[in-house]
Amino acid sequence: MKVIVIGPHGKMGRLITMAAASRNDMELVAGVAPKGRSYIGQDLGAVAMIGSELGVSVTDDLESVIELGDVIIDFSTKEMAMEVLELAIAHKKALVCGTTGFHPEEMQKFQNAAKEIPMLYAANTSKLVNIMNRLLELVTSTLKDEIDIEILEMHDQWKKDAPSGTSKEMGEIMAHALGKELDEIAVYGREGASPRKSGTIGYHSLRAGNIPSSHTVFFGGMGERLEITHHSYNWECFARGACDCAAFLANQGPGFYTIKDVLNL
């Protein structure tokens, strides 16, 4: 499988480049950076700082290299991601997108793209996070209104969106287990006199230092509490998962896929 990595100098792009370069079933054919970056034209391996050159240059023009690839992996910015999506559709290329922070209207464009290309969207590509999601669904569907649900998510100081895309996905899973939509029952932070309303899901976002990613869901009952937590020590698990998603798309036709399909969850 021939792979194009978007944003190879970013924290995820570097790790995805490294993960893909280490796989026997993948060949990196291009890295695409935002326009104006000083490293345009340099070797992809050098830009991603993987310790060796790959014989592939970084460009700022996806359209000039898109026909070289079978699949595009994009963990860049929401602005760049929308441009990548349009080109992937135009050239009928499979796309893995892990960028977060999209509005519902923007997410609908990814859904629509699935009519024409293999489209895999994953707010979180960690295997353990997605197994955690299954546990959250089990607890919520079993206990329903017997428990209060609160989500605490922590990320580094550079994280742009809040709550995180992963925590939103967790909230949606639990809301659906309650037979509701997340936007109907989500409460974001509290201040002053704000008693808890039964049946809601509370969100709390921390941003500090270089915390990679941490999500804890609290299920509060009377006289007892269950906590389910996932900590990532670095972003390598997400990079490996992103490559697994790309490999999955190799044998897929047009459609909207998630990491659940990749992991058979």
TrEMBL record:
<comment type="pathway">
    <text>Amino-acid biosynthesis; L-lysine biosynthesis via DAP pathway; (S)-tetrahydrodipicolinate from L-aspartate: step 4/4.</text>
</comment>
<dbReference type="GO" id="GO:0008839">
    <property type="term" value="F:4-hydroxy-tetrahydrodipicolinate reductase"/>
</dbReference>
<dbReference type="InterPro" id="IPR022664">
    <property type="entry name" value="DapB_N_CS"/>
</dbReference>
<feature type="binding site">
    <location>
        <begin position="98"/>
        <end position="100"/>
    </location>
    <ligand>
        <name>NAD(+)</name>
    </ligand>
</feature>
<protein>
    <recommendedName>
        <fullName>4-hydroxy-tetrahydrodipicolinate reductase</fullName>
        <ecNumber>1.17.1.8</ecNumber>
    </recommendedName>
</protein>
<keyword id="KW-0521">NADP</keyword>
<dbReference type="GO" id="GO:0050661">
    <property type="term" value="F:NADP binding"/>
</dbReference>
<feature type="binding site">
    <location>
        <position position="37"/>
    </location>
    <ligand>
        <name>NADP(+)</name>
    </ligand>
</feature>
<keyword id="KW-0028">Amino-acid biosynthesis</keyword>
<keyword id="KW-0457">Lysine biosynthesis</keyword>
<comment type="function">
    <text>Catalyzes the conversion of 4-hydroxy-tetrahydrodipicolinate (HTPA) to tetrahydrodipicolinate.</text>
</comment>
<keyword id="KW-0963">Cytoplasm</keyword>
<feature type="active site" description="Proton donor">
    <location>
        <position position="159"/>
    </location>
</feature>
<comment type="similarity">
    <text>Belongs to the DapB family.</text>
</comment>
<keyword id="KW-0560">Oxidoreductase</keyword>
<dbReference type="GO" id="GO:0051287">
    <property type="term" value="F:NAD binding"/>
</dbReference>
<dbReference type="GO" id="GO:0005829">
    <property type="term" value="C:cytosol"/>
</dbReference>
<dbReference type="GO" id="GO:0009089">
    <property type="term" value="P:lysine biosynthetic process via diaminopimelate"/>
</dbReference>
<dbReference type="InterPro" id="IPR022663">
    <property type="entry name" value="DapB_C"/>
</dbReference>
<comment type="subunit">
    <text>Homotetramer.</text>
</comment>
<feature type="binding site">
    <location>
        <begin position="7"/>
        <end position="12"/>
    </location>
    <ligand>
        <name>NAD(+)</name>
    </ligand>
</feature>
<dbReference type="InterPro" id="IPR000846">
    <property type="entry name" value="DapB_N"/>
</dbReference>
<dbReference type="Pfam" id="PF01113">
    <property type="entry name" value="DapB_N"/>
</dbReference>
<keyword id="KW-0520">NAD</keyword>
<feature type="binding site">
    <location>
        <begin position="165"/>
        <end position="166"/>
    </location>
    <ligand>
        <name>(S)-2,3,4,5-tetrahydrodipicolinate</name>
    </ligand>
</feature>
<dbReference type="GO" id="GO:0016726">
    <property type="term" value="F:oxidoreductase activity, acting on CH or CH2 groups, NAD or NADP as acceptor"/>
</dbReference>
<feature type="active site" description="Proton donor/acceptor">
    <location>
        <position position="155"/>
    </location>
</feature>
<feature type="domain" description="Dihydrodipicolinate reductase N-terminal">
    <location>
        <begin position="1"/>
        <end position="124"/>
    </location>
</feature>
<dbReference type="Pfam" id="PF05173">
    <property type="entry name" value="DapB_C"/>
</dbReference>
<feature type="binding site">
    <location>
        <begin position="122"/>
        <end position="125"/>
    </location>
    <ligand>
        <name>NAD(+)</name>
    </ligand>
</feature>
<dbReference type="GO" id="GO:0019877">
    <property type="term" value="P:diaminopimelate biosynthetic process"/>
</dbReference>
<keyword id="KW-0220">Diaminopimelate biosynthesis</keyword>
<feature type="domain" description="Dihydrodipicolinate reductase C-terminal">
    <location>
        <begin position="129"/>
        <end position="263"/>
    </location>
</feature>
<dbReference type="InterPro" id="IPR036291">
    <property type="entry name" value="NAD(P)-bd_dom_sf"/>
</dbReference>
<dbReference type="InterPro" id="IPR023940">
    <property type="entry name" value="DHDPR_bac"/>
</dbReference>
